[in-house]
Amino acid sequence: MSIARASIDRALVTWMLIIGxxxxxxxGFATIGRLxxxxxxxxxxVIITQYPxxxxxxxxxxxxxxxxxxxxxxxxxETITSSNKPGVSRxxxxxxxxxxxxxxxxxxxxxxxxxxxxxxxxxxxxxASVVNDTFGDVFGLFFAVTTPGFSDAETHQIxxxxxxxxxxxxxxADVELAGLPEEAxxxxxxxxxxxxxxxxxxxxxxxxxxxxxxxSAGSVTQNGQDIRIEAPEGSNSVDEIASLTIGVxxxxxxxxxxxxxxxxxxxxxxxxxxxxGQDAFTLGVAGKADLNIVDIGHAVDDRIAALMQDxxxxxxxQPIYQQHVVVEExxxxxxxxxxxxxxxxxxxxxxxxxWRAAIVVGATLLLTVVGTLFFMSVFGIEMERISLGALIxxxxxxxxxxxxxxxxxxxDMHQGKSARDAAEDVASKTQIPLLGATVIGIMAxxxxxxxxxxxxxxxxxxxxxxxxSLLLSWVLAITATPLLAHYLFKVGDQxxxxxxxxxxxxxxxxxxxxxxxxxxxVMAGLIAVTVVCYIGFGQVKQxxxxxxxxxxxxxxxxxxxxxxxxxxxxxxxxxxEWLSKRDDVVSVSTFVGGGATRFMLTYGPxxxxxxxxxxxxxxxxxxxxxxxxQELEDFARSTLTDGEFRTQRLAFGPxxxxxxxxxxxxxxxxxxxxxxxxxxxxxxKTNPLVQDMRTDWRERExxxxxxxxxxxxxxxxxxxxxxxSAFLTATDGIRAGVYREDDRLIPIMVRNAGATDEGAAHxxxxxxxxxxAQAYIPVTQLIDGFDYEAQxxxxxxxxxxxxxxxxxxxxADTNVAAVFTQVRPAIEAIPLPEGYKMEWGGxxxxxxxxQGSLGKQLPLSLLIMIVISILLFGQLxxxxxxxxxxxxxxxxxxxxxxxxxxxxxxxxxxxxxxxxGMLIKNGxxxxxxxxxxxxxxxxxxxAVLDASTSRLRPVVLAAATTILGMIPLLSDAxxxxxxxxxxxxxGFASVLTLVAAxxxxxxxxxxxxxxxx
Length: 1013
Description:
The chain is elongated and about 125 Å long. With 1013 residues, it is α+β, with helices and mostly antiparallel strands. α1 crosses α18. This is Multidrug efflux pump subunit AcrB. The chain crosses the membrane at residues 12-30, 333-352, 359-380, 386-409, 430-452, 458-480, 518-537, 854-873, 955-976, 982-1004. It holds the Pfam family ACR_tran.
């Protein structure tokens, strides 16, 4: 007994399947995890090593090099990059894409061991390296907190209170604070007194350190019990620090007689954050993995609302980004799109097949979608942008199976067959071809879903959901569809042979008959159209991942290297003031000194630099961004002429960096800068569209170098370190201890009173303490003046080789691929000295990696698809006919994208793969039908015409329902180009299936033609 007949005979089992899909789908929708973007692992760790006093070159040579050498021994590492600034080494380690997230903890442990082993090879002045493997953590609930009128200490208390309370919310994994005011206790020696008394700088620092230290006092045993002795408490207030006493020359002197003690904000904080122009700090909340971010987000919102009753009046918590809101909106939009798609399917089928067929196919489609939600929940596949899109992508293929079965049963029952006989007859002819075509459609996406890199991980749910939904659609098409048709279809509605006598069928049959006569002309025309469309496809804009549909965009502003953070903040204030007057701007979040906390998986924070300013601008609508962005650029480029200004849209998916990047590697920094400069000149000369050209080394900085007088200094017993310590006291200050305030550790700095004066004139009068003479010596006796020198203060290395990267921006909506194609020959023609090399980064590198990874998986997928198509027919000519149609599928894609002006993005590539699957599927069923009709003894030409005519309605209806079902996606920035790809391509593919496939079939069987004649 066939499955289709059994589904009617054993209706109870089929109804259990139907009800199981419905109830399982409801349960799955209620319990499935929800995310904004699919989780992909950021396989990066960052190692920070402090080396105070060292130049960027010394840091690279003495710290980064030995650490990189140790890390390079790990087979799991793909790329090692380092950023070397004066006193700081920052090494980023990227793991090979073949390792998944479950393997990373062991890799990070191995990395820590390598770094720890390398500590012995670092110079004595270098501090212990810190390995940060949480670099990729995402804080999807991101708030700005403003505390106007509160002191810095009160702001810290408020921040810690909020963090502590939000951490207690169920589902919250971590809470990160950033931008809190930084304070220090400054001890400013009175130079005239300390010099006259000969008080050593170390005496001040030592007294403060001992007064604020925590030390053990041991324990005693009494009656068999250990009792710990607590050391006397240290100074716990600024007044107590000021009242410390110091022994000088056998006398005890109060610290207040020797120095002024104050508590104040540090002069150069590491970061400044403002929200709508008001000082703020940020609070990022990360949810636990595998939990529903929507539930976590609402719980956090409820907790914050409750906390607002307890926090002091005036404190405001403003959302910068709320992932749960975005996810909830996406889920609701999905339900609307799904309802629209199902409604479109039902309406189209009702018009062309009648309301009974519309209900049968529409119900099967709905069961397939809700059943897919059940399996998604079971297998832990979250509901996010990609998985929701996969259901829409698969809609055309999902409905096709049901249409084929319903249309076949309807035709047979019209001719008088019973529902059982019609189901058995249709299933016997179509269930195996449909299964083979379904598997081929799934395999079209296997190359992407099984790719081991970040793109494959990002898009895995696409492959999984399409695989589940298509297989389920086949199962339901041969079980639920026959049963529903049994209840709704009527027997003998039409006279025999009347199913395909309508005017549309007759017109198609006459057109196809003419095409068979003029088959050589038709094939020549198809080839000519294909060639023209491929040429046109070369004019389509290329894009890796499309821009996000979240109404956010960024500003990146970089002042010359070495610019102070307050100068940068002043320039950002001009932008804030301009934006505050705009009605289309909802909020402006300002970050000076570094990027924001990673609030989206696809957001990459910039490295901390005091010369860097960053804005996150939220607009009322997505459509408001392009004009606002253009006007802002016009204003900023004309006003902020000292810095480098550029805007950037938030993009979907992994990637990042400048659109075009060229990397030059070699030993000599001077030569590398020359090559980078030459590359920028060539790019500008080749294409005037390029803008915002820069290097990741930034500008050289002026360095003040005292000329140390060896003989004179050594005669007084003063070393280079003594001179450096004196200058440090006169500028940034020497850390002498910490002041404990609750859970805060506030540094205590010994710093001269004139340390913040402009310029370096006060350094000339700086006295230096000689331990040998136990007296102060003027610095003018120890140095022969000062020299100025321009130094590289931001040296970048890649895989242990000094590397400079030229980064190039482009105007919005520019075809990046076209510009890259123009500038590429000019850059590659630059002569490189021996030992130097050039390689491309940017979008070219990202897309090349993604396509390369796809290319590794694609041959196996193609092989499986070809083998299945051959096994279905047991011959070679039929599969060859079908596969010859695939290259022509680009025709409609080119026309659609050129007509709409949309780029061919990575999502459009997914649409092209989906289109190929649908085209192959329709081709298989059509060619199989011709074979079956021929097997009944029908003359060859008539068999081609009869079989093709019988497939007209399923092909056209499947195409129409799919094309119309894509309409809701046209407004989605992520899926728009994919929707146009499927709509344009499928419209043309239908012509290929209904005209090109029969013509090719008729041409490929010359013996049958002659026998027919």
